[in-house]
Amino acid sequence: MRRLLDLGLRLAIVFFSLWLHDRARVWMAGRCGDPEAASRQRSLENPFARIDWIGSVLLPAFLVFRGQPVLGWTRPLELDLEKLSRPRLDALRIALAGPAVNLLLALIGIGVFRGLDAAGLLTSPFLLQILPFFCLANACLAVFNLLPIPPLAASGAAEQLLDGDALSSYEDIKPFGFLLLLAGVYFNFFDFLTIPLGRLVNALLGF
Q: 18 is in which domain, residue-wise?
């Protein structure tokens, strides 16, 4: 039972972190002139409207159950470029908003951990496990979503920065982006991100 509660809490942390990631991108889209970006694909009356069932649920749950660093994403935003005053710059700002929130959460978690440790209050085995997980999960989500692979957050910005043959090639692989991501997870390709991030987060936590 304790094991199930621990896994459930870790999944809740991941879902909350992805939700904030997505809300940040939606908010930034509104600030840039396209407040309808989030509702263009589905009605926002649906509480699960922005969930990508593979990237937001199945993949994170699989990685949490296996005890691996968490990777994931939410639904891409379909932007109306005509509403953006500076499409390329605004697309970049929208793409960076989600990872920026995850990075901020990771830094807050590290600050809380170090503060509790300095005050001698970090005696709970529960906190010793959950806070580092919170920090690493958000650090991984931040950096992972900066990869220009559809449907990750940075893919929208990459699409606006490309033109000509490069854009045509990008559009050809776009429908298969999530398959590339799943293959990368299966073959541990993203270890080049998660292993250094794990070491960095542990160092910042004082381990």
A: 2-205
Question: How many domains are contained in the chain?
Answer: 1
How confident is the model over 90-102, as a mean pLDDT?
93
What amino acid occupies position 40? R
pTM: 0.91
Which pLDDT tens digit goes with each residue over 124-170?
Answer: 888 889 999 999 999 999 999 999 888 898 887 777 777 777 778 77
Q: Rounded distance, CA 194 to CA 137, Å?
A: 10
